[in-house]
Amino acid sequence: MFDASMPARRVPGSALPVGAPGWTPETVEAELIEAARWLYHAGGRAGPLGFVGSRLHDAPLSLHEHIEAFGGPPERADLDDEKEEEHEAERLHYRMLPAARLDQLDAALRWPARYVAPRHPDAARALQAWIAAQAARRGFAPICRERGLNRTLAYRWKDRALSLIAVGLTISRVPPR
Fold first, then answer.
1. What pLDDT, in 10s, does the model give residues 93-129?
2. Of 122, 112, 144, 147, nearest in space to 33 by CA
């Protein structure tokens, strides 16, 4: 472990001492998850919503018609109370972040494009799919299926992308958070 009282041994070809605190794939992973969840909770829906009103819908049943047809009132399809409270607490957390932290999270969202995509587009795609799964708290396998990625290979590409970002951040001398 790095200790300020120890004589600094240098990594060949680097200005960093051996064992110095810096970016690792694990710290990059944590920062990207935090940034994706911030975006997931702070950002609104994206996409064209102008055509929603033009869809034809079946006329909704009245409460009496629903009870008559199905033998009871309609069930509520929302999250249960505990999950709903947790979701609202997380949303409130991301709304209360200081501006400096928001700048850091915004910069983190650009790392895959800067350090991975130019030379390893497949790794960038896999990392983006994995980040989307983490932000939405979904499984990685369904997202890989949706995007046509081999899950086992996508995990390897994701790990490669995290390593490339960690090396890029260290070389660029971006201080770890």
1. 777 788 898 899 999 999 999 999 989 999 999 999 9
2. 112
The domain limits of the chain are 25-43+79-171
pTM over 0.70: no
Q: Which two tokens stand for residue 10?
A: 């240098």
Nearest 5°: CA angle at 108, between 4 and 130? 110
- Cα torsion angle, 133, 138, 141, 144, sign: negative
Convert 78-139 into a string of H (helix), E (strand) and C (coil). CCCHHHHHHHHHHHHHHHCCCHHHHHHHHHHHHHHHHHHCCCCHHHHHHHHHHHHHHHHCCC
CB 141 within 8 Å of CB 151: yes
Rounded to whole angstroms, the maximal C-alpha distance in the chain is: 81
